[in-house]
Fold this sequence. Notes:
The chain is α+β, with helices and mostly antiparallel strands and 156 residues long. It is 34% helix and 38% strand.
Amino acid sequence: MNGYRRALAATVAAAALTGLAGLTGCSDDDTPASVASRAASLASQGADAFASATAQVGEKFDDIKGGVDVKGDVRLGQVTASGGRSEVWVTATNTGGSQRSFLVQVNFTDAGGNVLDAVAVTVSDVAAGGSGKATARSNRELSGAVKAEVDRAVRY
């Protein structure tokens, strides 16, 4: 959980700096306080979106009973953009003895490793010894050099 707090703090700071940079010099009526207030509002919106996304992902994992940690059995493709949102192929290999499904948390990060978004994707009905695919898609538009990483995965 500590990593999430660090990532959230970095996201809030980046949003604040981005908002502040974009708001400076907007008009002659702007005071430093009004610019800072608008930047804080933008940062809060970014933090709220990230917190909401991670809460939804956490709820999905909480619903799974008896799942097995299989993070090492999941691979990601290259991140692409589609309709302004980031996407990545998720491939899960079933090393178990019967057909299973997988729930995978994918974190979309920036070049510095800061988490920009988190999504959960299900890879359903993977045959024993086989592989299945799904697409993880960000909840919103992400800019810059976006990467993806598997945060956690369970087979159930």
